[in-house]
Amino acid sequence: MAKHYKEDEWRKGIQNMEPGDKFTTKSRTVTRSELEFFALLGGDYAPQFLSDKAARENGWRTQLLPGLCALNIGYGLLIQAGPIADVIAYMGTTNMKFLAPVYPEDSIRMDIVVTAKKGSEKGWICEYDWTILNQDDVAVSKGHNV
Asked: I need a surface site. Which of 33, 105, 126, 138 has the fewest CB within 10 A?
């Protein structure tokens, strides 16, 4: 029977979970400074990331967080919470989709569901579906990792 773990309740590495098990991280609020720093660091000078005015002119509420920044924060939440803290190799992401905007002062968390697990010479190869949700439980991004 699948279990659902939350960060405050339990810390367990993904290699110790079973297919069907779920894990939910704590939420983290994204600041405008972090948004702008990430965009500038990566050289993504798209106006909707750096200007409220430009974002509003294109139909957004305010500046947008780059989608890959949300993913990076999601991975950080998983590392800090424990499930992927001791992973020795990231093998890829598939079926990644950005579903809704993330704005400054939004809070996001990551939910994962373990989908597969098999042994190898170096340890376990684990697969999981992930979803990043905002403070309103709206899925803003999702994908599948190995």
From this structure: 33
Q: Is 75 exposed, middle or buried (0-12, 13-18, 19+ CB in 10 A)?
A: middle
What is the residue type of 143? G
* Phi-psi group of 5: left, alpha or beta (phi > 0 → left; psi -120 to 50 → alpha; rest → beta): beta
Tokens coding 109: 């968390």
Q: Are 10 and 21 in contact (CB under 8 A)?
A: no
Q: Residue 90's domain is classified under what CATH number?
A: 3.10.129.10
Rounded distance, CA 28 to CA 135, Å? Answer: 9
pLDDT band at 104 (very low <50, low <70, confident <90, very high): very high
- For the record, the structure tokens of 53 come out as 């005015």
Counted domains in the chain: 1
More confident position, 17 or 130: 130
* Span 20-34, pLDDT tens digits: 999 999 999 999 999
Cα separation, 135 vs 106, whole angstroms: 7
The pLDDT value recorded for residue 123 is: 82
DSSP 62: S
3-state helix, strand, coil in the chain (%, to 5): 25, 30, 40
